[in-house]
Each structure stands twice: as structure tokens, then as C-alpha cells.
């Protein structure tokens, strides 16, 4: 743990205060309500694009399972937060795995996969070239 503290102190000394607002935006975008709203909106857009066919169970159940898994993992590991002198923002819960990083990344991936996938009925045929 001493090595980790030395690394944290080294990083803390080198990260400029001007980077803190950016980190707070990243944190806010990865908060649970934002992620759920993003995935829910992508499901609604997909339903509209596919003629009203409901398409919510997969992405939302994946997000629910990932949320539960991340929380369970965080409580099981129970990694403590760095010393208060290194804080630049308020926090809640264990520090690993990070809620805003894990759920934010998964939420964006689920929304992108949902919105960028082919609409129902569109197929692609692969033709094999001879020779």
C-alpha cells in the first residue's frame, strides 16, 4: 500500500488544478442516473427507428446486471480511499472498481451498440469471390 500512496502523491503533485473540472464532468457523465437515462433513451430511439418494436430488455438488463456486479465487487474488495489530503472532489463508496468509469463506459457502449446496429429486416449477403 505504501507504493500505491507514493504513486498517488506523485500524480497529485503533477495533475494541474485546471484538470479538475474535466474530471468532474467525466464523473458526472458516469453517474448512475445519467447512464440509465442514456441507455433508456437509446432504447427509445431504437424502438422508434424499428417501427415501435420494443427493444429494451437486453440493454437495460445488461446494465442492471453490470451495476449489481460492480457494486458487489466494490463491497467485496472494499478498497479504501486515498488520504483526505489527496482529494480534489467529494466521493462516496469504495474506490474500486470506479462507478463512474465502469458504468459510464458500459453505458456508452450499450447505447452505441443499440443505435449503430442494423435495423430489423436489413441483411447483408457476403459474396465469395472465385479465383
UniProtKB/TrEMBL annotation:
InterPro entries: PAP2/HPO_sf. This is PAP2 superfamily protein.
Amino acid at each position: 500500500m505504501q507504493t500505491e500512496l507514493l504513486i498517488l502523491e506523485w500524480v497529485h503533485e503533477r495533475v494541474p488544478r485546471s484538470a479538475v473540472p474535466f474530471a468532474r464532468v467525466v464523473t458526472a457523465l458516469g453517474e448512475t442516473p445519467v447512464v440509465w437515462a442514456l441507455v433508456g433513451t437509446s432504447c427509445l430511439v431504437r424502438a422508434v427507428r424499428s417501427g415501435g418494436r420494443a427493444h429494451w430488455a437486453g440493454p437495460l438488463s445488461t446494465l442492471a446486471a453490470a451495476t449489481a456486479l460492480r457494486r458487489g465487487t466494490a463491497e467485496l474488495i472494499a478498497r479504501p480511499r486515498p488520504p483526505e489530503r489527496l482529494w480534489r472532489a467529494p466521493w462516496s463508496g469504495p474506490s474500486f472498481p470506479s462507478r463512474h468509469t465502469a458504468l459510464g463506459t458500459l453505458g456508452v457502449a450499450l447505447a452505441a451498440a443499440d443505435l449503430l446496429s442494423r435495423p430489423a429486416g436489413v441483411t447483408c449477403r457476403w459474396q465469395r469471390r472465385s479465383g
